[in-house]
Amino acid sequence: MHQKGQKVATESTVVVFETVDQLPGGRAVLILEAPGDNTWKIVKGHMTQQALTEMSDLVRWLIAKGRWVQNWERPPAAEADSATFTVEVRIVDELPDGKTVDMREAPGDFVWLILEGNMTEQAREEMEAQMRFLTNHGHWKQVFPGPDEPSS
After folding, report:
1. What is the pLDDT along the chain (152 residues), one digit of tens a residue?
2. By three-state DSSP, how is residue 60 classified?
3. What distance in Å separates the CA atoms of residue 88 and residue 11, rounded to the nearest whole number?
4. Which residue in 23, 58, 93, 113 has the fewest CB atoms around it within 10 Å?
5. How many CA atoms lie within 13 A of 124 on its CB side?
6. Model's pTM, two decimal places?
């Protein structure tokens, strides 16, 4: 289980998922980016510890497999603004095998599936909006399939 502020180095990016007591402006989620650093801050009570742990494990797996990479050599703003990448965070009624978090991915598309009762609607909306911004403005690039995965 991840403790508050635990850092996990994955390839060249350090991923941190942490719960905090509060965020500015009454926010529930804040994703912070810097070269080599990806920090997810989630206000206590907006996501269960199990869901937070499962999501952080999946993010680390995606980065370790090379399916997602930070992109600090972004295209010009006009190019980035024209990029359309679909990101969704969905609350679902059921997931397989006792999971609280799962994902679906295809080229140009990424969906988090969160089992009902494990994330607030405020956190869902904020996470989805921030992930859309990061992908559609070129902060993160999807490499699909990952470099060590078959293409079929």
Report:
1. 333 443 433 446 788 899 999 999 999 999 998 888 889 999 999 999 999 999 999 998 888 888 888 887 755 454 544 457 889 999 999 998 889 999 999 988 999 999 999 999 999 999 999 999 888 888 888 887 655 555 44
2. helix
3. 25
4. 93
5. 17
6. 0.81
